[in-house]
Design brief:
Blueprint: E1 2-9, E2 37-42, E3 46-52, E4 61-68, H1 83-90, E5 119-122, E6 138-141
Antiparallel strand pairs: 1-4, 1-6, 2-3, 3-4, 5-6
The protein binds a DNA duplex (12 and 12 nucleotides) through residues 7, 9, 16-18, 21, 24-26, 40-46, 48, 50, 63, 65, 82-85, 94, 124-129, 148.
Length: 150
Amino acid sequence: MRLVEVEAYLGASDPASHAYRGPTARTAPMFGPPGRSYVYFVYGMYYCVNVVASRSSVAGAVLLRGGEPIEGVGDDARALAGPGKLARALGLTTAHTNLDLVRSVLSIREAPPVPSARVVRSVRIGLNQHATTHEPWRFYVRGSPGLSRP
DNA sequence: CGAATGATCCGA
DNA sequence: CGGATCATTCGA
């Protein structure tokens, strides 16, 4: 798949982040080395996949919120549209948390750059409590069918 | 809009 | 321990 929507989460400075109140068993990967996965279970039925993106001991990760299928014709264009659906389509669960994404079963690779005119930067969505950060830490490809919100 | 559905975390 | 919470999704 091709990633078309992501959101950034930091640590102590980001009230909306799972890492806001320090490390726990669940959020430990967020405080570990970059390039690993952080997968968690929400709402009793969905998993969400993150890529840890800051150096060890500094919390920071990127939530994968949307993707477009690129292999397998006839794929539902919206099968990866949303963090819960993306994790489900990839078959990822908490069993896949804290895995090395560079040299492991999963791999994230560089792709031809998306023209910057098609990249939109906005505020994060789906956040409840906390004065949700007003920082524009959500990035997505304009018009993609793989977005969590069409 | 609200239900589904269960792990997690904090406060007591 | 108990209950409030939740970075979601789907269907009325």
